[in-house]
Amino acid sequence: MSVKRSFMIQSNRSKIVGLIVGIIVLAISMLTSVLFGLQHFGLRDLWYAYSQFDGSNEHLILTTTRMPRALIAAVVGASLAIAGAIMQVLTRNPLASPSIFGVNSGAVLFIVIGLTIFGSSLSMNGMIWLAFSGAVVTSFIVYMLGMQGGNGFEPIKLTLAGASIAAFASSITSGIILINKESLESALFWMIGSVSGRNLDHLLMVLPYMVAGFVLSTLLSGSLNIMALGDDGAKSLGQRMTLVRVMSATAIVLLAGSAVSAAGPIAFIGLIVPHLCRYIVGNDFRWLLPYCALIGAILLVTADIASRFILDSKEIPVGVATAIIGVPFLIHVARRRNHA
Predict the structure, then answer these.
(1) Which of 112, 128, 138, 244 is the most exposed place for a label (fewest CB within 10 A)?
(2) Do the Cβ atoms of 289 and 97 come closer than 8 Å?
């Protein structure tokens, strides 16, 4: 017994060290994101931009563009990764991501509808609220459809409902764009997913919902461990499955909905990061969720840095960079599952 206890203490210490290392790596990644891009800066420039701001272009870029961009990338990456981990245990599907809930398709649909109605007068703040509303509405519809039927909730029904609603919303979006082509140019850059062109006000608009999602997912970590055992095992341990599922779905909507509304539908973060974290710390959600938050933030910040250098003298949306990383990983996971 003492040997087992000693092993657990040592394991927990190593995980704590891993979190500390992750925080340091994230800080370095964010600093790199602030300093490097199409225009490079030094640490002295960053210090003077905040201590002796003079209104110059360099100081404006650092304080109103680079720093908000790094912060938004970190928070969005963390939110998508945690939402993906919860989604995978909720659907019992290792290839699940928040998009199964209709978050992406609903947000895009509401954005296109808003652009069609309001045109160029629609502000970025208005787009964020429309995107969040679309994510919430479609997620609610998907969850209610997944609850229908005599057997109640079943993961396969939730997956099918999500795929159906996503296809329906995408079809409506395409139809609106064909009818009103003026909305395409305005919506296209946002639809790909990007953390550029946002400021701290945009982050602050959705930050309360992200924080609520973080807190709720932390409170659910023990219940998620039990849910991973399956319905029979969870019920035998006294788990209130309906309540846990509703709270899990709420956490996914808060995290993924606010992330998509702030940065657009960035793919693969919610799929890749939970698998990487399981490889590092196992399936205990008390450790898995904090690691997902850190590694998700690091991955998206790093992808945003890479997006500035893939093409000479031109940035690409970070959603393209994550797709370049994510597609080979998705193929690897699918092949590994098939061989297993």
Answers:
(1) 244
(2) no
